Amino acid sequence: MKTTETLKNTKVQLVPIADIRPNPFRYITDYPLSETKIVELAESIQDTGFWTNVCARPVNGHYEIAYGHHRIEAAKRANLKEVPLVIDPDMSDERAFAMMKRENSEAYGTSSGADAGVIAGLISGCAEGRLTVDKVHPKSPPHTVYLAMKRNGKLWIYPPNSEEFRTWMSSLQTTTWDNVLLFTTYTLAKNLGWTRSNASRNEDEAASTRQVPPCHRRPRRRAVGSLVVARVPFMSPVRA
User: Fold this and answer.
1) What is the distance in angstroms between the CA of the first residue and the CA of the last residue of the chain?
2) Residues 6+ apart with CB under 8 A from 50
């Protein structure tokens, strides 16, 4: 997923904390904030103040932050009533998601919980038609294709070849449904930038040939397929 937007019409503005909303692609309930990090940030805010580097956009009288959920919660704990935010009225859904993904990557590295939350946000956003991933290739093996949809405000994910998957696929042959997404682990990995390049694979092979100890090798880029599945514990027939 790429975005070419630039921050042109931004401004710093004091915003009441009561008017701040989370990134719509951040699954806080299922992937909660770290209490330890909130406490550390609250102490930091009391010592040095709230740093002005959280971006947000105005939405229906409120402000949706792209990232910085721990900092906003920490500000509440520090009894702040308002905080300075970088307001970007032109921030798109694609950019809001991309900024959240980058922030999570820098803050948590390859944390499985953070990665799973990012994947959940991508699938949900695509199912709603707000984000996009590459279409599933017509020749993709059936056992690699998942189906996701948003119904009654909930994200439902059906694994390949499950009874629910087959039922919905039959329905899609005769009826056009909104908020439905077909995806494979590869289409997710590709759009998230988690596929491994040929260069990294060649480097792994060369390291193995030289018998370089694993602890001295460069960390691998996240692998396609199995690693993405391993980081999505919510992939079950029904996602409540």
Assistant:
1) 27
2) 71, 75, 78, 80, 83, 84
CATH code assigned to 11-95 = 3.90.1530.10
Distance CA 54, CA 84 (A): 8
Residues 146 and 183 sit within 8 Å (Cβ to Cβ): yes
By residue count, the chain amounts to: 240
For the chain, which residues score pLDDT lower than 70? 1-8, 107-113, 175-177, 196-240
Exposed, middle or buried by CB within 10 Å (0-12, 13-18, 19+), for 145?
Answer: buried
Q: What is the DSSP letter of 72?
A: H
C-alpha to C-alpha distance for 79 and 236, rounded to whole angstroms = 40
Domain extents for the chain? 11-95, 112-195+221-230
Amino acid at 9: N
Residues 89, 124: Cα–Cα separation, whole Å: 23
Contact yes or no for 134/191 (Cβ under 8 A): yes
Residue with the two structure tokens 């499950």:
162
pLDDT in tens, 168-217: 888 877 766 677 889 988 888 888 887 765 444 444 444 444 444 433 33
- Rg of the chain over Cα atoms, rounded to whole angstroms, equals 20
Which helix (H) or strand (E) covers residue 56, if one does? strand 55-59
